[in-house]
Write a structure and sequence with these properties.
- This protein is an alpha/beta fold.
- It has a domain of 89 residues.
- The chain has a 5-stranded mixed sheet, with helices on both faces.
- The protein is globular, with a radius of gyration of 15 Å.
């Protein structure tokens, strides 16, 4: 298991865990889980680990790059790093009405699948929060 990368990814994850633990202890069986994409991770491996489709829609034939693509995620946000440091993308899937979900964090770093980064750049919104690190 790799250590959390420094900077915006670490800060974002600490913030999200704190938010989920505000009223009760964080429980992945109740709240869901986090995945931090690492250099060399394939889209297929990320989809298998998360149980979520990234480049296609589970309810239609839509695929990223085609006009009929409608993503499955709830939100996709770009978090800029401070002082020119690399940022990251935060992709959130809410899988149940009770809020259980999967959060996938995609750092802007070498070795990340180019198709995944293209998807994130095409669909992300800038974070309404201040720079996180």
């Amino acid at each position: 298991m790799a250590a959390l990368p420094a900077g915006v990814v670490r800060t974002l994850l600490h913030k999200r865990f704190a938010e989920l633990s505000e009223d009760e202890p964080y429980d992945p069986a109740v709240n869901g889980f986090f995945i931090v994409v690492e250099a060399g991770d394939s889209i297929a491996a990320i989809e298998q680990q998360s149980g979520c489709r990234l480049l296609s829609n589970r309810l239609s034939d839509g695929r990223f790059g085609y006009p009929n693509f409608v993503p499955d995620w709830e939100c996709l946000t770009f978090h800029a790093g401070r002082d020119g440091s690399p940022g990251c993308f935060e992709m959130v899937f809410v899988l149940c009405d009770d809020g259980y979900g999967v959060e996938i964090v995609i750092p802007l770093q070498g070795g990340i699948d180019p198709a995944l980064l293209a998807l994130c750049r095409a669909y992300s919104s800038p974070s309404p929060e201040f720079a996180l690190d």
